[in-house]
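Render this sequence as a predicted structure.
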Amino acid sequence: MLAEFLADKHLLLVLDNCEHVLACCGHLVARLLSAAARLSVLATSREPLGIPGEQLWPVPPLSVPPADGDAQVPEQSPEALVLFEHRASAVAPGFTVGQDNWLAVARLCRRLDGLPLAIELAAVRMPILSAEQMLERLEDRFALLTAGSRTALPRHQTLRATVDWSFELCSEPERALWARCSVFAGDFNLDAAERVCAGAGLATGEVFEAVSGLIDKSVLVRDECGHVVRYRILETIREYGRQRLEQAGDTAAVLRRHRDYYLHLAEQADVNVSGPRQYEWAERLRAERANMGAALDYCLTRCRQTTTPARPVRTTSSAGLGNNAPTSTRRWTTRAIP
């Protein structure tokens, strides 16, 4: 009946929030488009419908000030700060973003990844906390951002409920990958994901499809870096993954795999640092700087390992003062701190 009604119509049909009935929406839209030549459909969803003729238009987070931005209030505020000021002034009359609080609000919006719901939930806390105080409590953002509208859908009333909703829409391999890739700092490539995230419940051969699924669901963000595709995850999504990883009891094992992967990468770089591929390896290490730092931090804080010079070794040099002239060479060993 619907297809027959739309057959001669020239209109735009809007379907909002399709992700929880994705297959049904896909079949419906394909059927209607085949029946109505002048019909256009705008569907909002956390992943594509996956039908012929579909064109994707990703909706990015709101713009936020750059981390190294000037301390002065810009003439045109980024979108995230405009939303925060608008929502905060509704619950704290007279609130404005000015010179005295601009840096704190900017940092808060950056830490919230420019996500509109997270910013709204933070703004309604302004009668109780300042932006500076919220920054101090943001380590547990899911406990802080819980005061959503009573008239909103349950999954939009708290930040955790929203992310829970996304997590439940994932397959089991995708859930495992989401939790495990939370150990990465900054971005990472497919090889790192396969080496670090594969394990119990997620075979190496399943990582590729799980990455593809998380990109479709907007959990992972795809970036092109030269000829290599890398992936990153928003801090809010990463923090949720960390909590899921802790609940599964997998944190220690995945962190060890992360450490071992970047140790092996450093060893490869050491071999190639002065060869014909030195520029390639310099670029690779630059891209992996955040993860190398995270691996070192793990060694110094979790497993308490450090690299220290061993006792100097006496060797004989054939140059200089003669065959019996002693010189010292230094070896490096890794030991656990008691």
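Summary. Strands lie at 11-15, 39-43, 221-225, 228-232, 305-309, 313-316, 326-329, 332-336. The two ends are 75 Å apart (CA to CA).
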